[in-house]
Amino acid sequence: MTDPTTTELVDLTPERTYELDRAHVFHSWSAQGALSPMVVTKAEGSHVWDGAGARYLDFTSQLVFTNLGHQHPRLVAAIQEQAAHLCTVAPAFANAARSEAARLIASHTPGDLGKVFFTNGGADANEHAIRMARLHTGRHKVLSTYRSYHGGTQLAVNVTGDWRRHDNDHASTGTVHFFGPYLYRSAFHAETEAQECERALEHLEQTIVMEGSSTIAAIILESIPGTAGIMLPPAGYLAGVRELCDRFGLVMIADEVMAGFGRAGRWFAIDHDEVVPDLLTFAKGVNSGYVPMGGVAISPAIAATFDDRVYPGGLTYSGHPLAAAAAVATIRTMEDDRVVEHAAALGAEVFAPGLAALADEHAWVGEARGTGAFWAVELVADAATREPLDAARVGAVVAACKRRGLLPMANANRIHLVPPLTTTAGQVREAISSLGEALAEASA
Ligand code: PLP
Q: How far is the CA of 333 from the centre of ligand 1 (A)?
């Protein structure tokens, strides 16, 4: 199958594409030697096609960003129109696409977060949020959870809690980690959601006191930790973090890079707890990842810090018109087509019962959890001890899914099911059924 591509790339067969990739492309987070990347030749809605012409249901949304699916006509048209009109303009100028994107974002962020600083992606959004918090408070330390991912740049990866920090960890000054709630593997020996919530907040309070609250600028946390396992915080936890931030004068930064823009069945995951952070970071779903964009939504108090004082930070492509035009089209499409409501219904009516049944049927499913179009299936070798399933057997499940035309996202001992928010109920049922068959095949 040839790739129906642009005139510049018309000679690039899937075979040649693969060859050039292996010769010249250095991939993220990987030992390069063993890689064998799938060549994607075509994509539409919730499907992608590989170099041999096989079709897959894309339950990864790539890296959890194609919230409106692939090749959405309204987004493609918006980018094409913006490109024909004005491809690019420097951040210092005002531009229609950027102004309207900022207005639309601010109209959906919680509370009074009314100003937006645009970045190129999620990591730099978090770096800038931390910088703003430090300048606003005059303090240095930042608290974040162990089970988190905040980005691949140096500060963001040090603030990150998970394994990706370890080889990059030069003990960035002032970065302090704590345990967030995760009842299935409770750090607090809790047995109920309420206990987990209370004990996790008590632990955070002790961490703040022992670190010295007057040295802490901010707490940064994912409203729902994503890559680390899609762990929904117990009701009241985020409100408890807000209360601690208020009590000790800390900036609360909600990282909504993965969970935001409808993924969790709300415009922002933090809306589940009706909490307003001081800074909220976003990327990915803001424009379905069609053109790189991230940003920080800023409270009036923090924005006011920089009314007379220079904000010492910026990026060449801050609020790039092509990315901003894609954001405008994404957000308007989400409003017009009630995409957030659809994601919430998929979670409540299709994922929740479907995965509960899967957990009953398969011994390897330790827990299935999530909301909206944001689900993790945690695989265990032993249901009683909750020992994580090893990489070889998780790999066998993924391979069996692919043979059935399902592309899942594998992460440690978990399968994440994170399709476009526009995926139909029938497609979700099909994916859950394929995963069930794959589990049966791999465990036979
Ligand atoms: N924060 C969270 C919660 C993420 O999931 C990610 C990426 O997956 C990032 C930050 C980093 O975003 P980016 O890769 O766009 O820099």
A: 23
Say how many C-beta atoms besides its own lie within 10 A of residue 130's C-beta.
27
Query: Contact at 8 Å (CB) between 409 and 375?
Result: no
* Ligand 1, atom 1, residue with closest C-alpha: 150
For 17, the enclosing helix (H) or strand (E) is helix 14-24
Alpha-carbon dihedral sign for residues 371, 201, 106, 287: negative
Q: Which atom of ligand 1 is nearest to the CA of 227?
A: 5
User: Per residue in 310-319, pLDDT tens?
Assistant: 999 999 999 9
pTM given for the model:
0.97
Pairing of strands 251-255, 216-222: parallel
Q: Which residue has the tokens 């979670």?
A: 347
Exposure letters 366-393 (e unless 16+ CB within 10 A, then b): bbbbbbbbbbbbbbbeeeeeeebbeeee
2, pLDDT greater than 70:
no
Cα–Cα distance measured from residue 71 to residue 75, given in angstroms and rounded to the nearest whole number: 7
What pLDDT shows up at residue 314? 96
User: Coil, strand or helix: which one is 365?
Assistant: strand
Domain ranges, ordered by start, for the chain: 14-71+338-443, 74-336
Kindly state the DSSP code that residue 412 receives in the 8-state scheme.
T
Q: State how far the Cα of 277 lies from the Cα of 251, in Å rounded to an integer.
A: 8
Strand partners, 379: 365
Q: Element (H or E) spanning 104, and its range?
A: helix 96-108
What count of other Cβ atoms lies within 10 Å of the Cβ of residue 6?
A: 8
- Nearest Cα neighbor of 196 from 224, 230, 231, 237 is 237
368 contacts 350 by C-beta, under 8 angstroms: no
Look at residues 228, 281, 224, 284 and name the one whose alpha carbon lies nearest to residue 251.
281
- Nearest CA owner, ligand 1 atom 13: 122
Q: In this structure, what DSSP letter does residue 78 have?
A: H
> Spelled out in words, what is the top-level CATH class assigned to the domain 74-336?
alpha beta
Q: 422 CA to middle of ligand 1, Å?
A: 22
Q: Which CATH architecture has domain 14-71+338-443?
A: Alpha-Beta Complex (3.90)
Cα-based distances in Å from 408 to 46, 95, 266, 402: 12, 39, 23, 8
Q: Say how many Å lie between the CA of residue 224 and the centre of ligand 1.
A: 13
Q: How far apart are CA 73 and CA 91, in angstroms?
A: 28
> Which amino acids bring their CB within 6 angstroms of ligand 1?
63, 121-123, 126, 149-152, 222, 226-227, 255, 257-258, 283, 294
Q: pLDDT tens across 359-385, in order?
A: 999 999 999 999 999 999 999 999 999
